[in-house]
Design brief:
single chain; 155 residues; alpha/beta; Rossmann fold; 57% helix; ATP-binding; ATP binding; P-loop_NTPase; nucleotide-binding; DNK_dom
Length: 155
């Protein structure tokens, strides 16, 4: 699949600083920034209540959201070829979460196979980004940042 010459993805662990870097780059270089969508996941509460029961639906919902988000970014990149589009998290990293759910026993082999069929079908049909920047932040630092964010939210 061809790549889009003006599409950049930021990847990294949860609380690695993707969104902060996204905004800093967008402001500094006048880039078109797209944050990871944070719409209400209808499976979130159910997932936390019973992860084994709801992990598959939870993961498939996220996959669909990330597919739509990436397609939107591609459309903007095509419509605005002189502008660089930058987004945090993408459909390409979604499989990491699904694989982890499978390895941890939250989704079955059959469910993981279903996920991979959809994932592979989609990623084979969409343009690749120009580049992916991975923020290599230790799990300890990410956890520390998550705790800080939780404290700010609960105040």
């Amino acid at each position: 699949m061809n790549s889009l010459p003006n599409l950049l993805i930021l990847e990294g662990g949860i609380a690695a600083g993707k969104t902060s870097l996204l905004h800093n780059l967008a402001n500094e270089y006048n880039l078109y920034a797209l944050e990871e969508p944070v719409t209400d996941n209808p499976y979130l509460a159910k997932f936390y209540e019973d992860p084994k029961k709801w992990s598959f639906e939870f993961q498939m919902w996220f996959l669909e959201q990330r597919i739509q988000h990436y397609k939107h970014a591609c459309q903007i990149a095509i419509e605005q070829p002189n502008n660089i589009v930058i987004l945090d998290r993408s459909v390409f990293s979604d499989s990491v979460f699904a694989r982890l759910a499978f390895q941890d026993g939250f989704i079955s082999q059959n469910q993981f196979d279903q996920y991979l069929i959809k994932y592979n079908d989609i990623v084979s049909k969409i343009p690749l980004p120009t580049a992916v920047v991975y923020l290599d932040v230790s799990p300890e630092t990410c956890l520390y940042r998550i705790k800080i964010q939780e404290n700010v939210i609960t105040r």
